[in-house]
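Exercise: predict the fold of this chain.
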Amino acid sequence: MRRLAAVLAVVLAGVCAFPASGPAEMTQRGQAESRSLIGHVFTRQDQPVSKAIVYLKNTKTLAIKTYITDPDGSYRFPALAPNVDYEVYAESQGARSDTKTLSGFDSRKVAIITLKLK
């Protein structure tokens, strides 16, 4: 019993000496180390495009994320790596926008890119 009590005391002392990061600290750290991309997709006549597919390609890993635009044509990609280039374009009913690049040198926390279907 004394051994068990001694082991528990050591374990508890270790836990108190090195507290884990709380969720708030992790969130603050995560926000400081990431950025977001937001924007809208429009037709040639500047009408918002609902349900367009927006493709976001990480040029370092070649991973592709997609987002289906909201009724107002908006899209968003949160928690992006800050020092990576991304390519973004949209497609809807056979029409496609030009591909635009979000540079790793762009230091904005929230970048805004508007895409226009051709």
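Check your answer against the key: The first helix runs from residue 2 to 17.
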